[in-house]
Amino acid sequence: TRDQSNNETWFHERKIRLTASRFGQICKMRANTSCKNTVYNILYAPSAQSKSLKYGREVEAVACQKAELIIKKKIDICGLIIDPDDPYLAASPDGLIENHAVV
């Protein structure tokens, strides 16, 4: 699912999984946090199209190129990664480094 924000499969597959970008929200829930509202927001809230996300999409390729120069390693672009043991978990890293470290 490369070219993530322009890929319908990426949107669909993220919608049916708990993604890394939402995991923090779950971990930070308090006893008085509404489970109903949290689940509703995860399942039905429109995708964020903020200025910061737009900027991130625009400069991601350049940022990866600069990071490659600094760390002297190739960053491979990747799509959605689904956990093979727990397929309800997924993440969309900006890239992977040789030893599969996440960028």
From TrEMBL:
Residues 10-100 form the YqaJ viral recombinase domain. Pfam families: YqaJ. InterPro entries: NF-kappa-B_Signaling_Reg (IPR051703), PDDEXK-like_dom_sf (IPR011604), Restrct_endonuc-II-like (IPR011335), YqaJ_viral_recombinase (IPR019080). GO terms for biological process: DNA repair. PANTHER family: EXONUCLEASE, PHAGE-TYPE/RECB, C-TERMINAL DOMAIN-CONTAINING PROTEIN (PTHR46609), YQAJ VIRAL RECOMBINASE DOMAIN-CONTAINING PROTEIN (PTHR46609:SF8). This is YqaJ viral recombinase domain-containing protein. The lineage of its organism: Eukaryota, Metazoa, Ecdysozoa, Arthropoda, Hexapoda.
